[in-house]
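Hi X.,

You mentioned you wanted examples for the new student's onboarding notes, showing what a folding record looks like when two proteins sit in one file. Here is a clean example. The first protein comes first, with its sequence line followed by its C-alpha cells.
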Amino acid sequence: TTTTTTTTTTTRTSSCTTSSYRLDIIPKNVYTSRPRRRVRADDVMVCDCSLSEGCSENCINRMMFVECDPKYCPCGDECKNCRFQKREYAEVTLMEPKDAKGFGLMTRQALKKGQFVIEYVGEVVNEEEHNRRKVEYRKEGKRHFYFMSIANGEVIDATRRGNLSRFLNHSCNPNCETQKWQVGGELCIGIFALRDVDANTELTFDYHFERDAQQTQRLRCLCGEPNCRGFVGSKTANVEDARVCLGDDPSSSASLYDPARDEPRPVMVERGHVEDDPLGSLSTSSQQQGGRRRRFSGQVARGQTEVEQFLETVCSEGGVLTSDAHVIAVVRYLKPQYSIFEISNIFQVILASPTRSMREEFVKRGILSALQVLMHRYTEELTKANLPLLRKALDVVSFLPLTEEAIIRSRTGKCSFTTFLLDLCRHHDQEAARRAGAIAEKHLASQLRWRRESQQRAQQQMASSSGWRDRERERERDRDRDRPRIREWRQDGGRPPSLVVNANGKRPRDDARAFLPSPPPRPAHKTAAPPAAAPPPPRPAPTPTSTSNAKRFKEISDAFVWKQSSDDFRAIVREIIEYRVKKSTRDNKVLRKDKAKVEAIIDKLYNKVMKKENERAGGAVTVHKDLVKKVDGYARGHMKQYSK
C-alpha cells in the first residue's frame, strides 16, 4: 500500500458557517502551478502481455502501478490496464451527515478486494501554494481541508474543485486504500478496495495525517471502530487522551455541533471539460516566482518524505530490505516524478540487497523498464545533479543478475533496452559510457560487436564515396582548370574538342562539358621555343569487359564499351541525371525542399534511360560523348515540366 500523506481536517466549532458552498465536479486533475507533462514515447513502459490475456493481473505494468498506453501496448484497445484513462469508477453516492464526521461516501454496488473505486482529483498545486492555501482556509473558517500529497512537494487540493472522492472519511479500520499510479506521464491517486465490501456500505481509508508547525492541536478520530487510535495520524491507540482532548465534555465544541444544521451543503456543478491553468490560480507571490517550488525555512517544519517513511518501514537499521516481498513496493517508487534525493535513496537500498534471490526478484518485477525511463530522462535533462544519478543507475543495472529474457522483454515506447544501452555506450560523459560499455560487454557482446562493425562500415563508405556536393566542387575545379587552355586554343585559331559541332549541327550544352573527356595537350606555336621532351606514350585503351580504370565520366575514352550489368556504367548514367535534376531544381523552391520528390524523379529518369538503352543496344552499350549529351538532353527536357 502506498503511504499517502493526507490532510483532511475535521475540527468543529460552535459557530455555524455558510449553509452551502460551490463545488466544481471535474473529470481529471487541473494543474495550476505548471503545465501538464507531455507523454513521450521514452516515458511509456511497454508490457509483454498477449492479446488473449488483455493485461490481466499478471501484467508487469499493473504490478508496478503503471497504466498502459493503448498506442504501444501489445493488447491495443483490448487492454484492461486503462482504468484511470477510461474512468472505470464504481457506483458511489454521497452520504448525508449523521454525526460530527459530516458527509461521507457510500458504494451502491458490492466491491471485490483490489477493485478500483474512484480517482482522487482536484487542483494540483506546488508546495508554496499549498501552504498559502492552508493559511487562507483557516482565516475563512473552513472546517475541512482536502489536501493529498502526490510527490516532490506537489499536492492535490479538492476544496473548490474535485469529485465525490473528497467526501471519503477517515477510519482506523478502513475498507479502502490509496495507490499512486503513473498515468500518461503524471502521478494519479486512486482509491482501491482493501477487502470485499457489501453494497450500501460507507467507504473509508486511513488519512495518515501529519501535523505541521502551524497546527498545534491533534485531531480527534471519530471513526468509532474497536481499534480506534484516538487521534487521526496516531500509530498507537490513545483513546483516553482523545476523551480528555475533546468529546465527553458537554461544553465541548463537538457536543454543540448539529450535522443537519451546521454542516454546509455542497452545490455540485458538473464541469465536463476543464483546461489546465498554469499560474492562473496561484497567489501574487507565487506568480512572481514563476510557479516554482521553493523551500520554506521557519514557516513550515518539513518532516520525512513519503519515500523516506516507506524505506524506514521496510528496511533494517543498516538500510537493507528485510524481505523479498517488499521488492515490488520499492520498484513502484522508481518514477521520474519523485525527487533526485528520493530516487538516490532507493538506488542505495537496491545496491544493498543481501541475497541473490532478492536481486533476481528485482529483475523479475520489471526494474529494467523503470530504470530505462529514468536514465533516458537523466540523459535528456543532463545537469550536475542528474549525472551522478545516471552513473548510479548504471551501477544498479550492473549489480543485478540480468538474463537474456529480461533484457529482451524490457522496452519503452521508443526503443528496447538493448538499443538504449548500446546508444549509451557513446555518451559524451566518459564515465557513464564506460559503465554502459562494461554492461554491454557482459550481457550484449554479440550485439555490441555487430554495432561496432556497422559503424566501421559506415565510416568506410563515407570516406570512400564522395557525395553530390563533393562531385560538384570537383567539376567546378575542372572547369576552372580548363578555361585558360580553351582561351589559348581560341587565340591560336583552333577549337577545343569540347566545342566541336556535333552531327546535328549544334554545339554541346555547356553543362555537358563537365562530363566530357579533358582536352588534349596544347599544340606547339609556330614561333615558340624549341619543343620540350616528347610526352610519354598514351595508355592503352581498356578492354571492352574491363571497368576498373574508369572511375569518373571524364576519363572515358571513345573506344570504351560497357555491358548493361556494369556497375560503373550504371553509376555514370545516374551521375549525369543527378547533376541535371539537382541543377534544374535550384530555382524551384517547392521542389528543392521536397528531397523525396527529387530522388523519385532521379529514379524515374534512371530507369527509363536504362530501359531504352537496353532495348536499343541489346545488352551492350558504348559510352561516349554522344550518349552523355543524349542522357543530359533527355533529363533537361524532362525537367522543363517542373519549371512551368
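Then the second protein repeats the pattern, sequence line and then C-alpha cells:
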Amino acid sequence: NFRKYFNMESETYLLVLSAIVVIVVIHWVNRIGFKFNRSPKLTNVPPQSHFDNLIEEHRTSVIAVPLHRKTNYTTNISRELLDEKPPAVCPGYHDATYQFVETEDQLKDLCRSIVSIGDDIGVDVENSMGSYRGFVALIQISTLSENYIIDAIKLKGAIKKFLRPLFLDPNICKVLHGAHSDILWLQRDYDMVLINYFDTQIFAQLFYHKAVSLHVLWKEFCNYDMSKEIKNQFQRSNWAKRPLTENQLNYAMMDSHFLLYLRDTLVRKSVEQEIAPKAMNKAFNEMSKISLRVYEPERFNMAAALAQYSKMVVKFDPDIEELKKVRYIQLCKFRDEIAKSLDHHIEDVCTTSSLFNVATHLPKTSSDIVELFSSCQTTLPVLFQGNNLTKSLRILHNTTQTAVISTQIRELELKRREELGQAKQTERQMKKQERKQKYVEKCSTKLAVYENCRMYAPDGELLCRCDRNKIQWYLSKGIAELTSKDPPAIKLLFEPNGREGRDLTDRANQCVICGKTENFLKYHVVPARFRDHFPKKYKSHRSHDVVLLCFHCHEEAYKKSSLLKKQLAKEFEVPMMQSEWRSIVDRLRNVQKLTANLSRHTSHMSEESIAEMERALVEKLEVVIAENHYVSKLVSECDTTTCNGELLDKLSTIDFKAF
C-alpha cells in the first residue's frame, strides 16, 4: 500500500524501506546503549563542541579578581583596592558548623541566598572513584558565615539546574585550592564551567615557589593543623557510601571553610611584599588557563604511568630495567582496557603496587603469578583472573611490541626532562627575583637622601645645601640662627673660611638615570680603590662623587663599570680585585724583608744561609716582576738573576704608597 500510494517502483521502494530499517536499528542501539564490542555503555558525556561553545560564550568574562568585582583585568590588585575592604577575620574551627543539603528546595534556597547577597564563595569537590571515570559525590560551598555540604549523588539533576547559574555568575568569585581536577569533574558530570575563579594554590606559589598543600596554608595562616595521615585517609575514603560518617562530613567542611580568608590574606601579603606585577600576572593567567580547560574522556596516559613507575622504583638494574618498564606500561594499558570494559576504577582492577610487583618479577606461568600474590598475602586481582590471566602472561613474554614501546618511552622521558628543566629554570628565576627584592628592602634608603636645607653666610650669601642634622648641630652650638622652617635654613654667626668651589644646586631624590623616586641605592662613580690615588683636592668633597640610582639602574651601572675596570687593569697591568692587589703587596713585602735581612745580618750568617736566602729572594722576585709593572720598571736596569748590591738598593727603596 505504501508503494502504491507514492507510486514507487519496486527498486525504489526496497531502497526506502532499507533506509527506514537502518534508522530504526541505529536509534534502538543508541537507546539501549548496545555496542558492537559488547562493553557496557558508560556515563553520557556531553559532546566536545558543546563545551567549546559554552566556554567561548563566557571567555571574555573569565576573570580572577579577588576583591574588586568591577575590575575587568587581573592586574589591578593594589593597596587602593585593598583599602576598600577591611582585612578578613580568620573564621574559627572549634565552633564551625555545616548544613547538609540533600533536597531540591534546600539547594534552591542556598543558591538564591548567595546570588541575592552577592557574596564570594569557597568551593571544593569530593570525587568518588567507584567507576572508570568516577563521579562527583559531594560539593562543599562556604561563605564568610555559613558552610554547606551538597549531596551531589542525590541531587545530580538539581545541581545542574540551580548551581550552574551560580558558578557562571561573573559577579561572584569562586575560590578553590588546586582546582585542576575539580573544574574538569564539574564539566564532566554537570556541564559547568567556572567564571571568575581564584586558586589559592597557584597564588601561594608567589611566596613558596612550589605547589603547596592546603594543610600548609592552614598551619601558617589559620592556626589549624591536621596530620597528613588523617588528611590522606579521608581523601581516599569512600565518598559514595551513604550515610557518610560525621568525621567525613567535618573533613569535607574544613576543605572549603578557610578558603575565602586564605584568598584575602594571600592577596594582602602580595601587595605588602610588593610582588612583581609580572609574577602576579603569570599567576592570574594560569588561573584563566585552568578555568578554560575542557574535559576530555579518560584514555590511557603513558606519561602518567611512567611517572608512577619512576616514583616506585627504588633501585635500578641497568640490565633489565628497560624491559621492566616496557612490561609495566603494557600491563597498565591492558588494565585500562579491562577497567573501561567493566566500568571499574583502575585501582579496583589491580592496584598500581601489585602491577609494579608483577612487572619487576616477570613470572613465567600462571602458577607463578598466583604464588606471587599468595606470598604477599593479597587476593588475586581481576586483571589476573580467568581469561585476563592468559592475556597478561602473553603480554609479559611477548617481544613483538617491545621495540615500539621502548621508543615511545624514550620520547616521553626526553620531553619530560625538557619540561622539568624549564620548570626548574622558572623556579630559579623566581628565587632570584625574591633575593633581589630582599636586597632592595635591606640596602635601599628608607628616608630622603637630599633634604636640601640651606646654609647662608652672615652677609646673606648662600653657602651650600645640607641636611637637617647639620643644621641642628650648628643651632645647638649657638653659632647659627634659624631663618626659615620650611624649607629649613640657617644663617651663620661667624665668617666661614672659604666660599670657593661650592655646589649650590638643589638635588632631587630620584634616580639620576630613569627618574624613579623610590628604592634608591648610593652609587660611587669612581671606585674607592681608584679614588685613594686622587689628589687631595679631588677627595675633599666625597659627596660630589655619589649619585642615587634605582636598583635596576644600579645593576646596569655596575656591569658597565666592571667592564671599564677590566680595561684599565689590562691597560696599566694592575690587578682587578682588591684581594689580588693585597696578595701582590704581601709578596712584595716578603721580598723587601728578605732584602733587609741580607743587607743587615750577613755578618752573623753562614755562607749556606746567605746562599739559601739569595736563592729564595731571586725566585720570589721573579714572580713579583712578572705580575707588577711598577717593580719590573724599578729593577729593569739591574741583573735580577743574582743578588747584587745594586738590586738590593733598588728593592729597599720600594714605596708602598704607590700601590
